[in-house]
Amino acid sequence: MRYEEIRREIDAGTAARTLPAWAGRVLDDVAAGRSPVPALRHPLGFVCLPVERDGDFGVCLHIWTPEVRPAPSTTSLVHCHSWDLLSFVLYGTVRNVRMDIRTNTGEEPAEATQQIFEVVSQGDVDELRATGRAVQYSPGRSSAHRTGESYTLPAGVFHTTLIEDGKEAATVALGRQTPGSGDLSLGPLDTPTHRVHRSRSDHADTVRALRRSARSIAAAHPSRAWAPPAPDPAGKAR
Hints:
By secondary structure, the protein is an alpha+beta fold. It has a single domain (3-220), classed as Jelly Rolls (Sandwich), CATH 2.60.120.10. It has three helices and 14 strands. The strands form two sheets. It has a seven-stranded antiparallel sheet with strand order 9-5-11-3-2-1-14, covered by helices on one side. Strands 4, 6, 7, 8, 10, 12 and 13 form a seven-stranded antiparallel sheet that branches. The longest helix has 18 residues, at 203-220.
């Protein structure tokens, strides 16, 4: 399934009938080495499978799992996208907390705690460019989204994403690039421009994470999901 087809399923309210089985097959193909899609440790704390990249459109599977150690963050988890996000929750509870951002005017410099970084990505390298724009932020409106629900988040909205109820979740994330927007992150005032390489986790950890996620999808959608492989006699998933 590609961006437009997945979007139609979500818009029509039929995603729960089709996306779990599709996502389960994607996970199985990647875990078994039948798919070239990489499983990358994202600095925002999840495993990212970039399933489709086509011009301004993209489709990813995002998996929050204890099987893979999160990639270290050099800034913070507060960020905004350059693209409009539409997500479908395969399992778990995803909470998005929007942040109220106040730019430092110079009249109250002691209260500025973070600066804005511009994130420029090419391949598996993120360049985080320190802008020197000092800001303050505080939590604003939040919303929780549970298994089988979808949500949107427009480009340019600073937020952070939290996983509730067991700290495991997975989503199908659709992105549509918005002209004039940038990927931004908040980080320490004294952190300079730097580069970060997105990395893959240990292969065995990745396979366990993908198999675990496939089982969670099947458990959350018992009448809809693709059935993951049964363990072999040695006790390991095929």
